[in-house]
Amino acid sequence: MKVEFRHYHRHFERPLQTSHGSWKVRDGIILRLTDETKVGFGEIAPLRWFGSESFGQALDFCHQLPAEIDLETIAAIPVELPACQFGLESAWEDIVRGSLTEIQPSLARSGLLPTGEAALQSWQDLWHQGYRTFKWKLGVAPLQDEILVFKRLIQAIPTVAKLRLDANGGLSYPEACEWLQVCDQCELGIEFLEQPLSPAEFDAMRQLSTQYSTPLALDESVATLLQLEDCYQRGWRSIFVIKPAIAGSPSQLRQFCHAQKIDAVFSSVFETAIGRQAGLKLAAELCPNRAVGFGIDHWFNDQLEQPATFEQLWHSL
């Protein structure tokens, strides 16, 4: 198969604020594979601060690729390049299985709210678009300020909605306990608190998961398939948030999820429609019962967001 790649550089409509800092620009790589009769697309969307390779490492890898590759070449991509594994294998699957041609409209999606008080207004727009699950990031402002906004938010959102809280590993142990106490007393359904502590505090998170009724989910701790397998072996049996675009090989991820029957939520890394569709395909196969964390299209407004075809997206770069 002939392989081509093009770099994209897209700005968020407004910077995404997390405990890791402010994210203003998403850089990634679109892949195009062609054989004698078919075309397949894939995407490399690394997230270095989350645990994958850097964009520079991914771009260097692409420059070193031969003009033509086969499945053996794809299978030999090292585990240190999980976003590259996902992108090339997804493009190959697009050719041999047509995995990106079927949209998955039946999957419920979780809409990502802005941090702070802006969430008090923005949830309404998402509600009118059909979202019934929302995600709100913590650990950006002082604890008590965020709790006050949270209490206003849960009073505003209809009780039939679900709310996910994501700390991106930015809480201390006492802060996590305080948040879990607040969540346990909340009448609105808090679906889970995501990654309250840093990945280095795995044992403390496992302990917290047994002390409160609000479920915990791992995210940064399970960024790649290797980390996912490790946390499972170490006894994590609550929720796993899987970002397929940086997890690694889609086929190996399928094998693990089928074998272990984990409780998973599939989530975005702010990829384009190409990477998103590949992730949604996996989510439909492996975890159709939880809302997917791909409700992020309102964070961009460019030609990469809703292309008529992937070929059109490719030619827009």
Strand order in the sheet with the most strands = 10-9-8-7-6-5-4-11
Strand content: 15-25%
CATH class of the largest domain: Alpha Beta
Structural class: alpha/beta
Return Rg in Å: 19 Å
| 3D shape | globular
Do you know the CATH architecture of the largest domain?
Alpha-Beta Barrel
User: Which residues form runs of ≥5 with pLDDT under 50?
Assistant: none
The total count of helices amounts to: 12
Q: What is the makeup of the main sheet?
A: 8 strands, parallel
Overall average pLDDT: 93
Number of structural domains? 2
Which helices and strands appear, and what pairs or packs with what?
Layout: E1 2-18, E2 21-34, E3 39-44, H1 55-64, H2 71-75, H3 82-96, E4 109-112, H4 119-128, E5 133-137, H5 143-156, E6 162-166, H6 173-184, E7 189-194, H7 202-208, E8 216-218, H8 225-233, E9 239-242, H9 244-247, H10 250-260, E10 263-266, H11 273-286, E11 292-295, H12 310-316
Parallel strand pairs: 4-5, 4-11, 5-6, 6-7, 7-8, 8-9, 9-10
Antiparallel strand pairs: 1-2, 2-3
